[in-house]
């Protein structure tokens, strides 16, 4: 359970840092348009901090961490969320600084972000499969 609390806490801190970075970086560069940086803040709060608080509460009732694939789920999900957050920052910084990217690099960033989202989706599926088995075990 301590691991889940720590993950939630770390993502909460990263979310706050990314929010401050978004606000200050855009202000410092006199940028007033929309940027991908704003997505970093919400993704880290919702998919990081809040998600792991929910996992913690569910784990308390159904002992998810006892499932053989629980640690694999943590690795897959966290990898996806970190990759996704990094690509949002990467794209957002280039947007704010008005850096012209080649179409190949733009596609690469989108592809990497897509891979991050795919890992998050796989992690969510793993989570629900683990939850399903854990609930069945408790009900048996």
Which features would summarize this protein structure in a list?
140 residues, mainly alpha, 4 helices, elongated, DUF2871, membrane, DUF2871 domain-containing protein, transmembrane helix
Topology:
Elements: H1 2-28, H2 37-62, H3 70-96, H4 103-139
Helix pairs in contact: 1-2, 2-3, 3-4
InterPro entries: DUF2871 (IPR021299)
Protein name: DUF2871 domain-containing protein
Transmembrane segments: 7-25, 37-58, 70-90, 110-131
Q: Could you tell me the radius of gyration in angstroms?
A: 17 Å
> Which strand-content bin applies to the residues?
under 5%
Q: Flag low-confidence runs.
A: none
Helix vs. strand class:
mainly alpha
Transmembrane segments: 7-25, 37-58, 70-90, 110-131
Keywords: Membrane, Transmembrane, Transmembrane helix
Protein name: DUF2871 domain-containing protein
Describe it.
Pfam families: DUF2871. InterPro entries: DUF2871 (IPR021299). Keywords: Membrane, Transmembrane, Transmembrane helix. The chain crosses the membrane at residues 7-25, 37-58, 70-90, 110-131. This is DUF2871 domain-containing protein. By secondary structure, the chain is mainly alpha-helical. It has one domain (2-139). Helix content is 84%, strand content 0%. The protein is built from four helices and no strands. The longest helix is centred in the C-terminal third of the chain and has 37 residues, at 103-139. The protein is elongated.
């Amino acid at each position: 359970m301590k691991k889940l609390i720590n993950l939630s806490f770390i993502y909460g801190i990263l979310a706050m840092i990314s929010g401050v970075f978004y606000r200050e970086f855009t202000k410092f560069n006199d940028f007033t348009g929309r940027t991908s940086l704003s997505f970093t803040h919400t993704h880290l709060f919702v998919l990081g901090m809040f998600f792991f608080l929910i996992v913690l509460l569910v784990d308390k009732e159904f002992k998810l961490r006892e499932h053989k694939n629980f640690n694999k789920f943590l690795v897959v999900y966290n990898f996806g969320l970190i990759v996704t957050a990094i690509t949002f920052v990467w794209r957002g910084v280039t947007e704010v600084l008005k850096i012209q990217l080649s179409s190949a690099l733009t596609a690469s960033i989108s592809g990497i972000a897509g891979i991050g989202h795919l890992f998050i989706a796989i992690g969510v599926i793993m989570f629900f499969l683990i939850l399903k088995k854990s609930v069945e075990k408790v009900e048996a």
